[in-house]
Amino acid sequence: MMMSGKKTTLLELKGGDQLGAQDLTLLSLASLLVFLIPVFYINRRLKLKINKTMSASIIRMCIQLSFVGLYLEFLFKFNSPILNIVYLLIMISIACQSILKSSNLKIRKLFIPVFFSLLLPFAIILLFFNAVVVRIDNLFEAKYMIPIGGMLLGNCLRSIIIGLNNFYSGIKKDERVYLYSLSLFSSRIQALKPYFKESITASITPTIASMATIGLVSLPGMMTGQIIGGSIPIVAIKYQIAIMLSIFYTEYFSTILSVLFSLKVGFNELDVLNQDIFISKK
Amino acid sequence: MINFESVYLKRNDKEIFSGLDFFVQKNEKVLIQGKSGIGKTTLFKILLGFETIDKGRVTFNKKDIVKEHITEIRHQIFYLSQDIDLKNEKVKNLLEEILEYNLLKNQDKAHFADLLNFLDLNDIILNQSIKELSGGERQRIGLLIGFLLDRPVWLLDEPTSALDDIMKNKIIDYIIGQDKTIIIISHDDVWKKNNTIRIERW
User: What is the DSSP letter of B133?
Assistant: First the structure.
């Protein structure tokens, strides 16, 4: 109640003739490309051979985001819980593939464990966010579920990559030490513990560091978007705190689960690392 | 106690064992000699479940080396690897962790002190981390762990390679005098002076 009341005042102050952010015309958006001219010029003079990759990346970004715009519009229009859930499941699958590829692990072998290690914390935190924190009636409301879900997933991607990579390449590199621990402790859990600890620490450290500096160095994108979209700063900040905590929890639990769930595939019956989970580099 | 029956193993297209038969009785001491690359260390790795054989049968105490028995089997074997691949931690903490995990926390303090003394180890070494130790010191720490764990079967891969002659003799006598089943891989001829040891030439 308070929130909506404040929002009206703000809009009235601005004149009340529009809701949310001012739309950008295509022409005005394209005008930003003007600054590419000096960039191209400098690249050329410095003989930096990145003009091609740079252009390709910019074009890809525009095309990909246009598509996202189209199907988000579609999702928002129907606002069907099933459609939203399917959309998020597809996003999780894509995230899994990208995680395994970046960690140099075989998709065929590790897709299922990583999929569930993402899905479980993700679903719990997302529903909690919608039900307890924002208190919306329709838990599967596209307007909340899709963007918040996307933010959680995008951040988990990085932390699971760091976690899995650290764990498996750590043991691979250090295999003799691992096996020797196995012989001394005669317990897989005890022998794996140091690698597990190291991978969890490595994966959550960046988020912990960014929580410590957020607001000092940079204004987070979500907050900026909300303020431009018409929210007053205090509301945007509350959301930002809620989302930072949610990101942290999802990252933390999904990284731990991804290591735990993958153990069965990652090691053979006698606790030796399965070399065939790695994508062999030729 | 330890049986290898017509064992075949191939690694990277190289025949390591083709029909190996090898038996060790309880409390027997066996010295394996032979040039490197012939599969001596692989023998130990098979017993510990680190390598899986292609054909044949290996048993430890009449038990196959499979998932159901592996923890129990590993718990009975002390393995000293050639490079003593201990994780890099402070020696003291590592010893504590190993003993605690093997439920040997209440070690006899006097026995511990005796072993340290016997192996010519001291507090300074215990407070260093594994990477700071010399080859000889690491070897003696490895042996110390084995002596403390007191498991019934010892698999020792070049246990005396980095030790001086006095220490070598002392340790060889100590090991041979144990009431345990012990297999030793060594190029050291000092082991042969003892006639209770069975010598296998590969």
Answer: S
Q: Given the structure tokens 């295999």, which residue do they identify?
A: A175
Domain CATH code at residue B157:
3.40.50.300
Q: What is the largest CA-CA distance in chain B?
A: 52
Question: pLDDT, tens digit, for every residue of A243-278?
Answer: 999 999 999 999 999 999 999 999 999 999 999 999
Give the nearest chain A residue to B74 (CA atoms).
A186
Please, which residues have CB within 8 angstroms of residue A57's CB and are 6 or more apart in sequence? none
Residues of chain A positioned with their CB less than 8 A from the CB of B79: 180, 183
Contacts of B75 in chain A (CB under 8 A): 186
- B5-56 pLDDT tens trace: 999 999 888 899 999 999 999 999 999 998 888 899 999 999 999 999 999 9
> Do residues A65 and A126 both lie within one domain?
no
- Structural domain that includes position A250: 84-277
- This model of the complex carries an ipTM of 0.93
Q: Give the distance, in angstroms, between the CA of residue B68 and the centroid of all CA atoms in the same chain.
A: 23
Domain holding B134, by residue range, is 2-201
Q: How many domains is chain B built from?
A: 1
Query: In chain A, how many domains are there?
Result: 2
Instruction: Tell whether the torsion through CA atoms of B134, B136, B140 and B146 is positive or negative.
Output: positive
CA distance A209 to chain B (A): 27
Q: Are residues A58 and A103 in the same domain?
A: no
Contact present, A223 and A237 (Cβ < 8 Å): yes
> Are residues A61 and A91 located together in one domain of the fold?
no
A66 belongs to a structural domain = yes
